[in-house]
Structure formats: C-alpha cells, structure tokens
Fold this sequence. Notes:
The protein is α/β, with parallel strands linked by helices.
Amino acid sequence: MAGRVQVKVCGINDAEAYDAASRAGADMVGFVFYPPSPRGVTPEQAGALAARGGTGRRPLCVGLFVDASDEEIAAALEHAPLGLLQLHGEETPERCAALRARFGLPVMKVLGIATAADFARLDAYAPVVDRFLLDAKPPPGASLPGGNAVSFDWGLLAGRAIPRPWMLAGGLTPVNVAAAIRATGAPAVDASSGLERTRGVKDPVLIASFVAQAHAAEAVG
Ligand SMILES: O=C(O)c1ccccc1NCC(=O)[C@H](O)[C@H](O)COP(=O)(O)O
C-alpha cells in the first residue's frame, strides 16, 4: 500500500535540533531518557524543548527508555508531554502491557534484527504494543543499546507481514533513507546518528534533508 512515510528524528537534545525537526515537518521527535547516552536529556530539558512548539509542525514527542522504572517514566511525564513510549531495553511483553496500562500511552517496542529468526519474537509482543521499531542489534562492544549507526539487512523484510504498525531504524541517513523505504516498504522511519555533525549533536541541514527525502519517498510494502 502506498502512502506518506512518517518520520521520527531521535535524540533531540537542543533547541536548534528541535526547531529544525519541526520546521522540516518531522512527525515525531525522540527524547532519550537514558543518562549514559550522549543524547540524553533530563525530564526538565525535554519539557523545555517540547514547549517550544516549533516553527512548523508540532511533532509528537516520543520518550525513549531503557529498562526504566515506573518512577523514571512518571518523572519524565511530569515535565514532557510524551505521546508514545519507546521501550529500547529488554522489556518483556508483560512489562510492555503493564506500562501501557499504567500510563495510558501507546507503547513502541524496539526489537533488534539480525536474522530471519529474530522476527519470531514479534508475535509475543503484538497483542500488547501499539507499534514496533525494527532496529539493528548493537554491534559487539557497543556501549549503547541503540543509536549505533548500524543497519540490518533490509532484505529480511521483503514480503514479510509485520503484525502491528512499524518503523524502520538503524543507520538511516539522508542518503540511504529513500532506498531503505523502497527496499522494505517501511511506513515510518527513524534516525539519530546519521543526522549528527558530531556524536550527540544534531545537524539542522541533515535533519531537513532526511525529513524531505523520507517524505518524498513512498512506501510500497
Ligand atoms: O541514541 C541513543 O543514544 C540511544 C541510547 C539508548 C538506547 C537507544 C538509543 N537510540 C535509539 C535511536 O536513536 C533510534 O531509535 C535507532 O536506534 C536508530 O539509531 P541510529 O542508528 O543512530 O540512527
């Protein structure tokens, strides 16, 4: 089914990046509530960024958590108007269901893909999540569970039905995003590292280019 591809810009941690994403028409921005990350933000910082509203589209705010406690998520929600919880750790289906019920927000579970066998995990999560984010697994020795600028084999998605709405991530850039959408039929895409001028610092020009390239591409899956 053809359609306009949704775009998420992840790891927004300063006003220049937030404004660039909004101006470019990004559908979603991601705030990383994971202190070890160079893109990490506090609840207060995320709240201040979201309050900018933006000069263009007001993007949906996505909170990225890694095996966070209920208290950590509640603290983020006290300050930031999150519309989607991205769970980027080892959260089980039961944990996803519990968080969805407790906070009354949609949940997007991240699953790392390296081989066809990895898709088997989707079925257990499908009844209790609202979306999947399909990402590369962290490379050996990586210090972060995501945001590592690596792609998985997009061919693994060919002809595959994903049981919930989903988003493609992992090593996407303004240069490869159109090809990624064509190859996978992804209805939504997410990028972080590929939009940075240095690690942890977004580049407004790369953000604008990524959003434009993705919105110009059409999902065919
Ligand atoms: O970005 C981080 O620092 C991060 C830390 C902990 C868990 C996840 C993290 N990022 C995830 C993402 O930014 C994206 O959802 C996705 O993994 C794509 O990242 P990239 O390959 O850098 O575009």
